[in-house]
Specification:
With about 250 residues, the chain is an alpha+beta fold. It has two domains: about 5-85, Winged helix-like DNA-binding domain superfamily/Winged helix DNA-binding domain (Arc Repressor Mutant, subunit A, Orthogonal Bundle); about 95-245, Chorismate lyase-like (Chorismate lyase). The chain is about 25% helix and about 35% strand. The chain has seven helices and eleven strands. The chain has helices spanning about 5-15, 20-35, 50-55, 60-70, 100-105, 175-180, 205-210; strands at about 75-80, 80-85, 95, 110-120, 135, 140-145, 150-160, 190-200, 215-225, 230-240, 245. The strands form three sheets. Strands 4, 5, 6, 7, 8, 9 and 10 form a seven-stranded mixed β-sheet that branches. β6 and β7 form a beta hairpin. The N and C termini lie far apart (about 50 Å).
């Protein structure tokens, strides 16, 4: 079997493994080929018929995938000439996920925090990772972080109702989640954890962060416990995968 046939068979099998619509999967696959330079800027891409044969899908599915890339400004299509790569996707990895306590307290330059929803006296979601003793009730804020008009982080922040009266209202639109409690006079943070996992955007995340469905994301869960052993804050963040990096100092 030729390398082309092997690649085609692998692509078809990979598409079958996901419940995400085929054209969305293909748009992600084609975007990746442009990112890596396999389809270089200015080059002519394979025809719709060739791609349909390779991927084992109908030509209409290929056209739907190409529509997404065209809307993103990555390709240009010309009647009777074909489809050409216009530019590579932007790779501006400026949003760094900090890995130490002091780093989590630093706000990002030019970032804006928008409160999308605000609920009082709620419980933590079922099955949430526990650290310390849960508070009797929490204030739940869903916040969206943007820079230069582009959203990069969606966060669900749970703050213990016991300490909420000690936090100025303006802090909820200006401070990082951990700094909300770190700046409270008389409150000592005695334990804090952070867990990072990699995933893909669901419908809600796709809409609120303005990214394609199934786009790579980084999920970060942060918890902090005070001197009384209470879990005073939980922050579940979803970062755009194309805007984030994690640096770990080994020595």
């Amino acid at each position: 079997m030729s390398s082309t046939a092997i690649r085609s068979a692998s692509t078809v099998e990979a598409l079958k493994k996901s419940a995400v619509a085929r054209y969305i999967q293909l748009a992600t696959l084609f975007r990746r080929r442009i990112e890596t330079g396999e389809w270089s800027v200015g080059s002519k891409m394979p025809t719709v018929e060739e791609l349909a044969q390779e991927c084992g899908v109908a030509t209409m599915t290929i056209r739907q995938a190409l529509d997404i890339l065209e809307n993103d400004g990555l390709i240009e299509r010309y009647r009777a000439k074909g489809t050409f790569v216009r530019e590579r996707p932007a790779q501006d990895l400026w949003c760094q996920v900090q890995t130490d306590w002091s780093g989590m307290l630093i706000a990002r330059d030019n970032a804006r925090i928008e409160v999308l929803s605000d609920e009082r006296n709620v419980k933590l979601p079922p099955g949430h990772r526990q650290l310390g003793r849960p508070a009797e009730a929490y204030r739940h804020l869903r916040r969206r972080h943007t820079r230069d008009g582009e959203a990069f982080l969606l966060a669900d922040v749970y703050v213990s109702e016991r300490v909420c009266p000690l936090i100025p209202e303006e802090a909820y639109t200006s401070k990082t989640a951990m700094r909300l409690v770190a700046d409270i006079p008389g409150i000592e943070i005695t334990d804090a954890t952070q867990t990072l996992t990699i995933g893909s955007a669901d419908l809600m995340t796709s809409d609120l962060l303005n990214i394609p469905l199934s786009h790579p994301i980084a999920k970060v869960e942060r918890c902090a416990v005070d001197g009384e052993g209470e879990l005073v804050i939980v922050a579940d963040g979803i970062y755009r995968g194309d805007k984030v990096r994690v640096d770990l100092k080994l020595r």
